[in-house]
Design brief:
The protein is of the alpha+beta class and 126 residues long. It contains 3 helices and 3 strands. The chain has a single domain, classed as Ribosomal protein L22/L17 (Ribosomal Protein L22, Chain A).
Length: 126
């Protein structure tokens, strides 16, 4: 039995790439994702290439994967693609402890994140 299959939510002019379990906090990852939302695919790649943030390398890989999915799986025009959605979600949090003075301990949280990048083909302006 089980649940009915969930139909895909993407339209025919969209392609998606998902990266799970990135080793950074969702708050830091969202700053990078926010910098590419709404940009054309070409400008977003340039933005990520020259970003100083470490996680920008992984976001760039996800964007390149979404562009490749659009081109190969959905036959979309790469020159007309733009980042329609770049969403960040929480994954698990590793909990560690650090020894402190007088026999005490401090909790260290090591959060992980999920990233979803959706690219869409821009409509032709006539």
């Amino acid at each position: 039995m089980g649940k009915p299959s969930h139909p895909g939510r993407l339209s025919e002019t969209e392609a998606k790439a998902v990266v799970r379990n990135l080793r950074t906090s969702p708050r830091k990852l969202d700053l990078v994702a926010q910098s590419i939302r709404g940009l054309s695919a070409e400008k977003a790649l340039a933005e990520l290439t020259f970003s100083k943030r470490r996680i920008a390398v992984d976001v760039k890989k996800a964007l390149q994967s979404a562009i490749a999915n659009a081109e190969n799986n959905h036959q979309l025009d790469v020159d007309r693609l733009f980042v329609s959605e770049a969403s960040v979600g929480r994954s698990f949090v590793m909990k560690r402890f650090r020894a402190r003075a007088r026999g005490r301990a401090a909790k260290v949280l090591k959060p992980w994140s999920h990233l979803t990048v959706v690219v869409r083909e821009r409509e032709e302006t006539a």
